[in-house]
């Protein structure tokens, strides 16, 4: 209501969007009043990543699409279960946005995916997190879990496993979300991406076929950032 009132005062025609970053863990999303949220929100951005990390007992996929009942330790969470729950509880498919990571999570001293590990090691900006633009690491082999629909690399000499989304996984996820009629996808976060043909954002854009364009009404002339001061012109 506040946004609508502001729009009427400031412009009279423009609809200011209201969206949230939403959880993909059932302990959290089952507490949400999704039917009501579906009526009010323009987009629900699912944070479909950080499914496994240093808080768990076993190495796991960072952003898998599905569960793997053959290796449950590798898939404590999955994107598809969250997507289906949100839709069932009242969020229109076209308002759901699938989040994708532009980074990988590492596990050291492990024999494979879904196995115990000794630590997460260092990272690009936080222990256990590596920017996509430096992956895969030299000496590692890219592996694919066809059940969970997720990739990871493993180095047999260092016993380091890193779960991340390479270009092919972005294409698979775009195919998935288009098949369900979802509203699109988002990324966290842009500075970790590669340039050129291996850019995950670029691959997503070309795979989707079109990019939504919304008129910008941002006015923040005192911002410390040049692009914001100029209204993203």
Automatic annotation (TrEMBL):
SMART domains: Glyco_18 (SM00636)
Record organism: Purpureocillium lilacinum (Paecilomyces lilacinus)
EC number: 3.2.1.14
Coiled coil segments of this chain: none
InterPro entries with a match to the protein in the record: Chitinase_II/V-like_cat, Chitinase_insertion_sf, GH, Glyco_hydro18_cat, Glycosyl_Hydrlase_18
GO-annotated cellular components: extracellular region
GO terms (BP aspect): chitin catabolic process; polysaccharide catabolic process
Domain (GH18) ranges: 1-211
Membership in a protein family: Belongs to the glycosyl hydrolase 18 family. Chitinase class V subfamily.
A GO MF label: endochitinase activity
Keywords: Carbohydrate metabolism, Chitin degradation, Glycosidase, Hydrolase, Polysaccharide degradation
Catalytic activity reported: Random endo-hydrolysis of N-acetyl-beta-D-glucosaminide (1->4)-beta-linkages in chitin and chitodextrins
Protein name: chitinase
């Amino acid at each position: 209501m506040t946004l609508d009132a502001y729009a009427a005062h400031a412009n009279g025609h423009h609809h200011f969007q209201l969206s949230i970053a939403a959880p993909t863990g059932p302990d959290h999303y089952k507490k949400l009043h999704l039917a009501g949220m579906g009526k009010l929100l323009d987009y629900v951005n699912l944070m479909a990543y950080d499914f496994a990390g240093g808080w768990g007992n076993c190495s796991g996929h960072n952003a898998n699409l599905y569960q793997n009942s053959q290796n449950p330790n590798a898939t404590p969470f999955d994107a598809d279960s969250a997507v289906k729950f949100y839709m069932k509880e009242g969020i229109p498919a076209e308002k759901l946005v699938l989040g994708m990571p532009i980074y990988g999570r590492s596990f050291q001293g492990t024999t494979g995916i879904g196995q115990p590990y000794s630590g997460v090691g260092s990272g690009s900006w936080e222990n256990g997190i590596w920017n996509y633009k430096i992956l895969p690491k030299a000496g590692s082999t890219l592996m694919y879990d066809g059940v969970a629909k997720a990739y990871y690399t493993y180095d047999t000499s260092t016993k380091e496993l890193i779960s991340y989304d390479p270009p092919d996984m972005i294409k698979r996820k775009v195919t998935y979300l288009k098949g369900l009629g979802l509203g699109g996808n988002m990324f966290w976060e842009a500075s970790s991406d590669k340039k050129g043909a291996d850019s995950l954002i670029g691959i997503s854009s070309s795979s989707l076929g079109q990019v939504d364009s919304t008129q910008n009404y941002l006015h923040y002339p005192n911002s410390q950032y040049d692009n914001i001061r100029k209204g993203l012109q």
